[in-house]
Amino acid sequence: MTDLRKYPPHEQWHDWTELDARAWPDRVERHYTLVPTTCFNCEAACGLVAYVDDESGRITKFEGNPEHPASRGRNCAKGPATLNQVHDPERILHPLRRVGERGGGQWERVSWDQALDDIGSRIRTALLEGRHDEIMYHVGRPGEDGYAERVLKAWGVDGHNSHTNICSSNARIGYQSWMGHDRPSSDFANADVIFLISSHLEAGHYFNPHAQRIIEAQQRGATVICVDPRLSNTGSKADHWLPAWPGTEAFLLLAIARQLLLDGTWERDFVRRWVNWETFLAEAHPELPQTFESLEPALLADYAEYTPERAEHVTGIAADTIRQIAAIIGAHPTRFASHTWRAAGAGHLGGWQVARCLFFLNVLTGSVATKGGTSGNGWNKFSPEQPKGAPPLTRWNELSWPREYPLAYHELSILLPHFLNEGRGRLDTYFSRVYNPIWTNPDGFSWLEALRDPDKVGCHVALTPTWSETAWFADYVLPMGVASERHDLASFETHAGRWIGFRQPVMRRYAELHGASLGPETRSHEYNPGEVWEENEFWIDLSWRIDPDGALGIRRWFESDERPGEPITVDEYYGKIFADSVPGLPEAAAAAGQSPLEYMRDRAAFAVPTDPYTPYERTVDDAALEGCARDAGGVFRKPGTIGTFDGSDEAFASTSLAKLGDGSPGVEVDGVVREGFPTPSRKLELFSTTLRDWGWPEYATPTWIPSHVHWEDLDLDGDERILLPTFRIPTLIHTRSANSKWLNEISHRHPLWIHPRDAEALGIDENGLVRITTRIGHFVIQAWRTEGIRPGVVAASHHMGRWRMEDGTARSWATGRAEIDHDGSTWRLQRTGGMEAYESADPDTGRIWWNDTGVHQNLTFAVQPDPISGMQCWHQRVRVGPAVEGDRYGDVVVDTAKSREAYVDWLSKTRPAPGPHGLRRPLWYARPLKPTIDAYRL
Ligand code: SF4
Prior knowledge:
Elements: E1 16-19, E2 29-38, E3 47-53, E4 59-64, H1 82-87, E5 96-98, E6 107-109, H2 112-128, E7 135-139, H3 147-155, E8 160-161, H4 169-179, E9 184-186, E10 193-197, H5 200-203, H6 207-219, E11 223-227, H7 233-237, E12 240-242, H8 249-263, H9 268-274, H10 277-284, H11 295-302, H12 308-315, H13 319-330, E13 336-340, H14 343-347, H15 352-364, E14 374-376, H16 377-380, H17 416-421, E15 427-433, H18 437-440, H19 444-452, E16 457-464, E17 476-479, E18 488-490, E19 498-503, H20 506-513, H21 535-546, H22 570-580, H23 585-591, H24 596-603, E20 605-608, H25 622-625, E21 629-630, E22 635-637, H26 649-654, E23 666-669, E24 672-674, H27 689-693, E25 720-724, H28 741-746, E26 751-754, H29 756-762, E27 769-773, E28 777-785, E29 793-795, E30 803-804, E31 816-823, E32 826-831, E33 876-882, E34 892-895, H30 896-907
Parallel strand pairs: 7-8, 7-15, 10-11, 10-13, 11-12, 15-16, 16-17, 25-29, 26-28, 30-31
Antiparallel strand pairs: 1-2, 2-3, 3-4, 5-6, 5-17, 9-14, 18-19, 19-20, 21-22, 22-23, 23-24, 25-33, 27-28, 27-33, 28-34, 31-32, 32-34
Helix pairs in contact: 2-21, 3-21, 4-15, 8-12, 8-13, 8-15, 12-13, 22-24, 23-24
Bound molecules: iron/sulfur cluster.
Residues 39, 41-42, 44-46, 71, 75-76, 78-79, 207-208 line the site of iron/sulfur cluster.
């Protein structure tokens, strides 16, 4: 122990010795077993290594896992803070069942067996009575790839619901309409120009893996450009901060695109080969010669209004700056890495065009899946084949997939209370999983009304690692593990490469390494704190209770192949995936003298070999083209695939749905058949025939759609402003971080960002109380006057404002005591206390020195789903003024009758299905649990 090391060498992980920092200055050696897992505190799934003290048998810290290809040994603050979540004194340790009325706060402890029997028998009865659509699994942070979908498929239930339309629906459809992949995969590490519409360096999607690569690129000379009305940490670190008016980002991007065309700094040959310009010309400019030479004048004509000067007026960014940015981008062909995910895309009506217009710059600069460019997620995310997969569903659940939103990405999750209220259906058994819709979603009081009503929701089962506002209104609260207490697989498009990560219950693995014999009857809750479990084993055992004798045809998907007639184990399930479905892993394991499962338990991550660049250029061999017909666009179509679907009964009977795209093998480009993109044209779609065919021809090309909060429509001379309620705090993560003392000691203020000019005009003092009035109610918050925000815009993070109904349980480190009452449809939430010190098994609860727990602003936001993507358009048109007499910090008042008016109003903006051939949704669009083609028939 004389040399300094970054990380303990892997070969010493099972027997690691280091000095005890707490014993300093004495040199006391401590012995550890290091067990790797992956973080569960955001979507990035970075590697973690748990240090288990061999003397106490307790996890004493989490550090980075250098074996993880994405995080490379590094974490943000939330990774190591997993330790707090493990040892939190008020975490839920045992299954609980409601006693008394819902929301009354009375619980009884039950065994896992009791919970499984009761819930299993409910679901069994519903299935036997044909009430499949009354079973719903609603997930917030999935943290895993595909296991829950496997379960629902096996049950024959189209019951997947997600948090996607409060997060990323707009970005998804923006990207998908270009390239068929619904997420970007940016190669920041090799980029020359990095363009972010987000606060990536502190909180962006795949925060830590992305941030470390962005900084490395900047250190070697890359230019970082950040568009954000707020001077985020990213804005302050960027070479160019562009605080455009919220909702004008697409205008700004199109002005840059026009400038690239004018300057001649666009990659003509790439565009000629890989963009469906022929369709664009035929549809939008039939008057021009149908040759590539017509493209530039056609585009300049279409985007004529997007001059730098006009853009300066609309966006607030100087014309010369726009020209300068265009010059920087144009000077670096093929090395332009861009990214947007939530941010502007999640804020606005038509926000999906932000991603569409941003990727336009990638297309024009030829920076598509190039070294230093932006790729499609499907090329870098690795999804192994799952064993024991049931056939596709034959059902379509309109509670999640309503006909008004045929193009939505994905479920219309936020509208569920309104659908239940309208009598579109009811729920017999509703699982919320790592999801807190009362707090996280807009219009939370409508959720509360629905979840309290047994006629709408028969039984609510909250699968959760922590207490939450929503769990409080559940019938069962079932404790599920944090990062070190569960099995999951995850893979994400964090960089130009592919990987798979394996989350595992650390203490179960520790026991195994120290000689415990884990038989098929072992369950991970035997090794976790209390009886904390994991979903995967829970789903296996629950499925057996639903179908104990196998007569429903469900049990067989959860049976062991090795021990017929017995439940499959997680070891068997994951062992089979690692042995059969991860290229290169069996060989790497053999080289290490291990089985693939043992290899992954030992490292928890594996870099899957790949060639990440320009996959669309791969040539298609003749065998794959056999039986195909070539269409006028050069696409080779195989009979029985989506591309040849004509709506006939025979086609309904014989067409198979592709997982991604339309199932065509490739497209001819300059005489060679290449794989291309998973779009109907197999090319990048400048003109989307899908948007045209499904009722939105005016948005078939990249376009700016004025936002519902467009500044020119506001009374800025009066008290109207734009509220940005969406930004993350780097050290917090929605509901889960409330159980971390370190994170809450760092971040526990919830100021309203307001420019001094606005504050002066509106009479708002520093730290003064401010009343923000939305369409359905108001809330009261405290002001922070700062020049770090564009005048006309105010902002508050969505990570604060947690509340609880009582002390003693459900306290955590971040919730304020609150009271709720209502008079008819008018609801009122008032804080009755902030955070305060208390005695517990953890002496640190007695040292809590902060009081603020923030304001639950989301309660006051109406549902505002974009009519195309279904995305909640989060930004709010609000009136801002000093608090009035009687207002107290944290007050929230909402009228749910107004919520319903807003719902009806936004619903009226839609253009419902059916689309072509009487379909509910384009067949080539992605969808969780893609059902059989017959289910698409309306
Ligand atoms: S970025 Fe932070 S919270 Fe997210 S997975 Fe990585 S370490 Fe965990």
